[in-house]
Amino acid sequence: MKNFFKMLLASILGIMIVNILVFIILFAMIAAMGSTAPVTVKNNSILKISLDKPIEDRSGIPTIDILSLDVETNLGLNSLLNGIEQAKYDNRIKGAYLELSSIQAGIASVEEIRNALLDFKESGKFILAYAESYSQKAYYLATVADKIYLNPFGSIDFAGISSKLTFFKGLLDKLGIDMQIIRHGKFKSAIEPFTLNRMSDENREQIKSYTGSIWNYILQTISASRDIATEELNRIADNMELAVAEDALNKKFVDQLLYEDELIAELTKYSGSTTLNTVNIDKYSTASLPLPGTGNKIAVIYASGEIMAGEGETDIMSKNIIAAISKARKDSSIRAVVFRVNSPGGSAGASEFIARELEITKAKKPVVISMGDLAASGGYWISTPGDKIFAHRTTLTGSIGVFGMIPNIEKAMREKLGITYDVVNTNEHSDFPSLTRPLKQVEKNYLQKNIEFVYSKFTEKVAKSRNLTVERVDSIGQGRVWSGINAFDIGLIDYFGGIKEAIQEAASLADISDYSILELPKELNALEMLVKTLETKVSKSADSELVRSFKYYEHIVNSIKNFGIVAKLPYIIEID
Q1: What phi, psi does 441 have (nearest 5°)?
Q2: CA distance 384 to 461
Q3: Contact 202, 424 (CB under 8 A)
Q4: Which residues contact 30 (CB under 8 A, 6 or more apart)?
């Protein structure tokens, strides 16, 4: 009888838990559906663009925060750009207001947003920008505005571009870990953080080159918008002359200093109404996303993250992307493909598998590449099949090089933990690759042969797709990273532009004028997304203090995990 009551209570408790979970799931689905309901836009409204959330290439399905029960949506670049374009022709929208401080997006994404806002202004509508303080990236975007406002107690970060690398060799030496490296490309510096304590001369040269070209482009853009000579802008940056808001006003970086209550009066005046009506871009853009029609379609396939073999919901998993490309090729209503690449690279094998699928598709219908913030190394590899390649001037691309990395942790395990290993092999190299002994010369030769083979295939693929000689590709390859500006000059890309321009080119190549957009791969449904959200929240809550540093941890883990042959960007690159 005692066991009976135990089982009964356990069953009741289980039913209660299931009911609670069902309630949460139903609430999340209803809330998520409600969040995508049409937004009411009043006449004389101002489109409010606040970019305080991470901006990814693609909007996701709204999810629910299980702790606060708030509906969360990521601000996708696709819906953001679509919203700006929609507002251009919406007679209820009088203008746009940029609420800026810092922007959680890459510099090329910011350039794409800025270009969309320039197009918005062609309608004759105004753009105003305001911030309590501007980061350098935020100010670059703000210069698209007709008027730039700053809080009287604010400032502008304006000091040029800096690229700082973190080196782990000292730590590895202390731990007794030896990183064994095989590579091709003198600029292939992905391995430098594990083998050096400072940048190599070649690495310093390439970083100076691409950061310099991007900075010069930003200066030219600001100069044209604010009528300040580039020489003067550099002088101001070198002397750090924007310490307080009055400095920014006196040097024509901003038009007026306003507190937030004064800004509201200014916005109301510009709206031409007695009351201020604003509509947030995240709501407006989500509501205005076009649905694929039944006629001609252009498939936009998103490939964002590190390139890996297999299946999964994160990064560029080869099987997922190949399935999406195959679907686009076999669907007769899809007349062309735009392949959006935002990747530092990754597995060389997975990159080739994806490129192969694109090549098969290219034989049947046009394929146009749209590069985001990054399309480097493996990211460039998967871009080679494109009929045309679009990139931004601030995109980082190239990095045509290959490397392999195998750590030897034998000393660390023996001296730090007292762990030793012994092995019995039937043949000389049966335990290859091993993390607990040094590489033998035959094994180094084996890896080097593989590296040279992959590099030769990489350069041949680039040479064929870009109509260059292999020798020319090798001279601009060697693992060197290029800005979009430089990449255009050396023939690695065809045009400057974003995803909108890539879609227009795809339509032109397919000889269609009336079409809808189908985004692939297919996203998770609301229930699947909720389960994924639950997993993510639990994981992050367990170690919330490390969340901000997670991308660096993830970079190290992936570098060690991909100890085979990879075509990958040297390190995490952030431009601000």
Answers
A1: -60, -40
A2: 7
A3: no
A4: none
Q: What is the phi-psi region of residue 74: left when phi exceeds 0, alpha when psi lies from -120 to 50, beta otherwise?
A: beta
pLDDT confidence of residue 566: 64
Is residue 255 within 8 A of residue 147, CB to CB? The reply is yes
Question: Helices in 50-95 by DSSP H: which ranges?
Answer: 77-89
**What is the rounded CA–CA span in Å between residue 143 and residue 149?**
11
Cα–Cα distances in angstroms (integers) from residue 526 to residues 28, 31, 64, 286, in the given order: 8, 10, 10, 16
Paired with 567 in beta bridges are: 346
pLDDT digits (tens, 9 = 90+) for 323-346: 999 999 999 999 999 999 999 999
* Dihedral sign computed on CA atoms, order 551, 557, 562, 567: positive
Helix axes 318-330, 348-362, angle to 10 degrees: 0
Check if the beta carbon of residue 366 is closer than 8 Å to that of residue 334. Answer: no
Distance (Å, rounded) from C-alpha 319 to C-alpha 308? 9
- Do 397 and 493 touch, CB atoms closer than 8 A? yes
- The single-letter code of the amino acid at 132 is E
* Cα 312–chain centre separation: 18
Answer whether 0.90 is exceeded by the pTM. no
Whether the ω angle into residue 433 lies within 30 degrees of 0, i.e. cis, is yes
User: CA end-to-end span of the chain, whole Å?
Assistant: 69
Residue numbers annotated as active site: 188, 377
Task: Supply 340's token pair.
Answer: 């959006």
CA separation for the pair 493, 390 (Å, rounded): 6
**Is residue 442 exposed (0-12), middle (13-18) or buried (19+ Cβ within 10 Å)?**
exposed
What's the mean pLDDT when you consider all of the chain?
A: 86
